[in-house]
Amino acid sequence: MESRVIRPEEAHSVQLNEVVFRYGIGTAETDGALSMLEVTIPPKTLIKPHMHSHEDEFSLVLAGQISVRTGERTIEEIPTGSWLVKPRSVPHAMWNVGDEAARVLEVVMPGGLERYFEEIAPVLRNHGPDWTKRYSDLAEAYGLTILDDWSDELKAKYGITL
User: According to a count of CB atoms within 10 Å of the terminal CB, is the N or C end of the chain lower?
Assistant: First the structure.
């Protein structure tokens, strides 16, 4: 690993539906130790509920107000400046409850999850034959469990969309 500065124009951006993941420090810059992602969540938007089997996730709310469900616990109205711990093997979901975009810094250990975002983006844009299989196979390859039942429940309860 070497010292360096990653300027804003050098960062990578991946858009999944309306959520934008931006990163300049990924597994390549940290020898796989961690990835840092800035996530911009539009108003009234849910990030697909899921569970990691390989990574722990740590978050800092940079702007806006979010809500989180971890396991069976839901925490509403988490303000800017709050920190979150989302251990591996604990299902979780995060959504923006406000009328303005929310920004969250995600630190994922070990690194590499940014590769999943890069690979899943074209799958989400190009529905077609075998779409469900490609979506499921990619989640499985990265040790992710997608929680569709949570998506339906949270969308109905909070008036949010994916």
Answer: N
Sketch the domain layout of the chain as residue ranges: 8-158
Question: Per the structure block, which two tokens stand in for 150?
Answer: 């949570």
Q: What six digits make up the tokens of 127? A: 């529905």
User: Got the DSSP string for 73-97?
Assistant: EEEEEEPTT-EEEE-TTS-EEEEE-
The separation between CA 99 and the C-alpha centre of its own chain, rounded to angstroms, equals 19
H-helix or E-strand containing 45? none
| CA-derived radius of gyration, the chain | 15
User: Is domain 8-158 in CATH 3.40.47.10, yes or no?
Assistant: no
Measured between alpha carbons, how far is 121 from 65 in angstroms, rounded to an integer?
25
- Taking the whole predicted model, whether its pTM rises above 0.70 is answered as yes
101-113: pLDDT as tens digits: 999 999 999 999 9
pLDDT in tens, 27-82: 999 999 999 999 999 999 999 999 999 999 999 999 999 999 999 999 999 999 99
